[in-house]
Amino acid sequence: MRTLALIIGLLSAAPAVAQTQAPPPPGQPSASPAPTPAATTQVTLITDAGPIVLAIETEKAPTTAANFLKYVDGRRLDGTSFYRTVKVQAEPRYGFIQFGTQNDPKRTLSPIAHEPTSKTGLSHVDGAISMAMAAPGSARGDFFIIVGNTPAMDADGANPGYAVFGRVIQGMDVVHRIMDMPTSPTKGEGIMKGQMLEPTIPVKTARRTATSAGGPAS
Q1: Per-residue pLDDT tens for 68-97?
Q2: Cβ(185)–Cβ(194) under 8 Å?
């Protein structure tokens, strides 16, 4: 396991009352319609620490989102775990937690092409979920959730960055709980030593779930 993983009124009128909109004053353009929000797919991770609900950016990051949904639909994430926490600082919390297949050959699919944030317009903001990888084109079945804004992980010039493909819309309290859990002082290789959760936090299921009204992550 050598992966380097460095986070959405109803207007009603009284019956029989017609409503019209006044035209704009002469010389002023008509208001443009609001842009349609990008399509997302909701996925819920049921973990031993509680549920985490994700909005997967299937429109903005189609390649990376499709890869994650293959793991979800194939139930390849059921029985995996959150196994790593990187705690840069305690308050305000800053770092990330990581989960996935850990290169288990029975679960892990082929690597995918890198989809940088410079292409998707996404960013490593608080609650973003991104792909773990050792190098562009090597990302497979391991993922991390950002705590705190981390723009240094975005693509910038020669830096390819990491591939954000969604965000937490509910369950940041669970993310924080996992981040604060104990780690082994000896497990892990290289920079990952001391970052491996002990015990790990099982992911019981990962499923597409009905989309609910958006709002800030809890």
Answers
A1: 999 999 999 999 999 999 998 777 889 999
A2: yes
